[in-house]
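hey can u run this one w/ zinc ion bound, need the structure tokens asap thx
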Amino acid sequence: MFYMDILFFFVFGVLLGSFLNAWIWRTRSGKSIWRGRSMCPKCGNTLTWKENIPLVSFFWLRGRCLTCQKKISFQYPFVEIVVGCLFAFSAWFHAGYILLTFRDAFVLFFLTFVFVYDVTYQEIWDRMTVYPALFLLVPTAILGWHSGMSITVGVVVGAGFFLLQYLISKGKWIGGGDIRLGMLMGVILGWPLILVALFFAYVGGALFVLPFLVLKKQTMASRVPFGAYLTLATALTMFYGMDIVQWYIGLIS
Ligand SMILES: [Zn+2]
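ok here u go:
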């Protein structure tokens, strides 16, 4: 039964990854996600059922649009596979605890949204941070995933940390989107895990940037926006943050 869960969440993730691709494209082109059918981004033709099967279509039609024959970005199947694997991981990690599996799948969906959009367009929208944070607050409060105190301190620290940098640098170091991403991180992780995630993001960012600085290729390194590190650090912390902290405390005591 357990393996059926993992398979179910993989397929569910691939479907939502396909939805995420559409949402990313519609966010970029200013269209509503609720209206109109999917179409080819190159020629604008409405997709037939053959072209609209997540993952399968891309490989079946060898990554081309049936109407204009132009190549479809590899980002489409990539996002579908990634979200599928992340959902399957959540099912594996929680081993039958369906509510927690759904919660983390929900969180991973929006972290992927931020990651892909921030890396591609250097923007973070409220629909990727504020709305999922508000949505997540309800079950978190009812089911007691974090205490009210833990969320409050988590949000104040997460958002406040970036707000402070925003004010000091007058918006040069970070954008307003990072402040709202900090708020989402606070709701997901609570206190004190928010600190662990911020720590991972900075260490990860430094480790990634260092080789580029040594090779004097700063532009390559600065092309990865900070939101990318924050989302990766949040995903790592939500699953393994406590283990890593306990391992560290064991080392120093
Ligand atoms: Zn086309």
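Residues 245 and 251 are 10 Å apart (CA to CA). anyway lmk if its weird
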